[in-house]
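During data preparation, we tokenized the protein backbone, and the record follows.
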Amino acid sequence: MRTTFLLSCFTFFSLLSNGQNPDIVKLRKEINQHPQQDEYRVNRLNKIAEIGNNILPDDERMKLVDEALQISRSIKYSVGEGFALLNLAITGRNRYTKEERDNFIMQADSIAKKSGNKELEGYVLLRIGLSKRFGNE
């Protein structure tokens, strides 16, 4: 009983302290120092959105994802677009239907296959598996 209580307290405080995740703080600083609309910025925006899942509010993450998607499309950075689409499928759970989110994942899958980027392919497969297992929530 005591162990369960201590474990619950530890989990609560660790989740509470994640509001100021040091990786997010570092990436935000890098973005603020790098206003150029390029792959570097897209990668950091996507990383914050990924790390910020369940930490940052969805609206804040949507702004990051939208910017990453817009920049990656304008500079024709397909891998960045693929990661942004995956983040959109996750972050947009309250904004888009399941079919729309599945479509984002399939677009990312297509980009992953065309680009041959193994990291993107892995994330897509993980997302597809989670979607099938948990209904894309």
Observations:
- The helical segments are 2-17, 22-32, 39-51, 58-74, 78-91, 98-115, 118-134.
